[in-house]
Specification:
3 helices, 164 residues, alpha+beta, single chain, seven-stranded mixed sheet, three-stranded antiparallel sheet, 13 strands
Length: 164
């Protein structure tokens, strides 16, 4: 009896470990609460928008760049991070330390100058597992009128391995 239970458990865990993960598509999902009532004044772009991985040694890399731009005024970023989509909603993955904005995007003291694009050219997802999913990067800042504003954009990371 115990051997049967252990065998069943091992088979279940094996299937779970190697099953293809599907986190769904955020087509009609609501925005996270912290973004819902903010004006969108920061443009956020990902390249490529649909991101296929490559395998290097034992890791998978989804190589992409993320750019931010404010056309209307200078903006002081006060928060930024990423959400992941699963269970039919956006779930906060991580809010980043503001010093990371300067380091990765090239801002100075988290200030975006009007009309100046800032690009994190190596905003890569790296994992030892091959699975796709949706993320949404967000940026919250204060414009020159003192209003709290935001910008956000989704990116689809696929499981379509490029170098099979």
């Amino acid at each position: 009896m115990m051997k049967t239970k252990v065998t069943f458990l091992l088979v279940f865990l094996f299937q779970f470990a190697f099953a293809q993960v599907d986190y769904g598509t955020p087509s009609n999902a609501s925005l996270p609460e912290k973004l819902q009532n903010l004006k969108v004044e920061i443009e956020v772009m990902h390249f490529p928008k649909e991101n296929d991985p490559i395998k290097i040694k034992d890791k998978y890399y989804w190589k992409h760049a993320t750019a931010i731009l404010s056309k209307l005024s200078d903006v002081k970023i006060i928060e930024f991070g990423a959400y992941l989509f699963h269970n039919d909603k956006w779930n906060l993955r991580k809010s980043y330390d503001l010093k990371d904005l300067d380091k990765n995007f090239g801002t100075k003291k988290q200030v975006m100058s009007q009309g100046e694009p800032y690009v994190w050219s190596k905003n890569w997802r790296i994992d030892n597992r091959l699975f796709g999913g949706w993320a949404m990067w967000y940026f919250i800042g204060v414009n020159d009128k003192g209003e709290t504003i935001c910008g956000y954009e989704t990116i689809n990371t696929t499981s379509n391995l490029l170098n099979k």
